What does this fold into?
Amino acid sequence: MKVSLIQNYSNQKQRIPLPDSTPQEFKEKTSTGLYGKENNTGYNVTFSGGLPGKSGAAAKSLGDRILGSKAFDKILTMAEESPIVCNSLFALGLAGILRPATLVAMSGKKDKEDNIYASSHAVSSGIIGFISSIILTTPLNKMVDRIKNADNPEQYLKEKTVQLLGLDKTKDTKAVKSIMNEGKLFKNMQNLVKVGSGIILGVPQAMITIALIPPILKYVFGIEKKPKGAPAPAMAQSEMANFQKTMHMQKSFQDFRGGMNVNNSHPAFTGNPVQTGEELVATVASKSKLFDPVQRLWDSFIGWGAKHIIAPFLDFKPIRWFADKTKDSKGMVNHLNAASSAAISGMYITKTLDNDKLDKDRKNTLAINQALVFVASTAGSYLLDGSLNNIWNNKVTPKYAGIFLNEKEKMAEFIKQNKEIMKFNKTAGKDAKKALLKLDDYIKDVVKPDALKSDALNTRLKGLDTAKKLFIFATVYRYLAPIIVTPIANRLGDKYLNYKKAKEQRIAAQTLQAEKFIPLNPAVQNQVNNAA
It folds into this structure.
């Protein structure tokens, strides 16, 4: 093993010299002589942030193309600024595209009808969930951002909250921005609102989805749940025809199919697949003064909400205490996601138990199945997230940083050295183990000193971790659970109910037989017993 490769990041400045300048197409903000002053090297380090274009530095591998794409960049920003909307976007892709595709692929002649209905149901659920999440959470997100980006957050927050955040110790604008944008405490407070609001909003969002799915299935997809007695093959063919007819008639579906290269006769999809409704409105509003009164009303509403809704919530003593005690937790997004899922699962369990159309045994069995699916899905999400932490933190994140900063070679060296350290630590004694290099310190001391001063890079690096957690939970809850876990739980429930029903019928038959039995005279019974 080349132990010489395992060294502290601070030595990298001599082994990996900083460039005199960066490519012109990436120059963005400021330049500083920080390293030149401290080390007398004469370096004039220029920070250049942004995604590389299709030049010599362009990504060649599929992974690089994904990490360097504008869509991925947009998703990271959405994950940090609007996590519930991002989670709904993942759910739309998983429940609205991948799950229907899987159901259709798994369809047989007997269950074709049910799978067509389930596919349409999943698509409708994904679309409604995405739209409702934008409507319900965008105002809250903007209210939090209004406080975070304020030059003087004290105008919103009470004195004790200001002191806890450390805002009372400085009046410097840059220091205030650093506390609100980079500090662990306000980041945790932000998560309690932006992610934690799903605990409260998840239930009404689910109820809206349940209420809107039947009319959407009927009037958009032309599909209704038919009685079991109807001829299955005819139903399946009719509903598939309606579904395909809807897909062909709607222009939006045609554009989407063109973008997926399903048929070259259709024009390619050129829109932004992750552009939110708010951004579309903002784009139109910026080109017309007719929207000025609406924009002023919106701004006034956000300012009012920041002061009278979000600030009192953050100032609430239990919330303030909880945020401070858990500010170092790396799993807060997961915990809040799990709590939101628990609230929604609880709502579904309650509706099941209150369903008068089901007998008592069926209701209890379904409720237990729903609870077990929630427990299994939550445990699976935590396990999957934990298993990916190493590769995500020590490979994916630094690789993305290298692409963003146009410093792929230096970040490749970071990945290489951490890999060597992990390899060394596997065989080293407890006292000989070495600490992994920290990405933030490495970027600051080796790559570009001013890089982390960019809000764009900070937002995306934080968004990487949040996006991973959101995607894992969405994958398990919205795809793996419906496809794998729920059918298994339902089969086990059905087997238990059939067993219980058969047992009850057997006991009833034995009871009936015993009631019809007329006991013999004791003397006669003795003769029978002796003869036996």
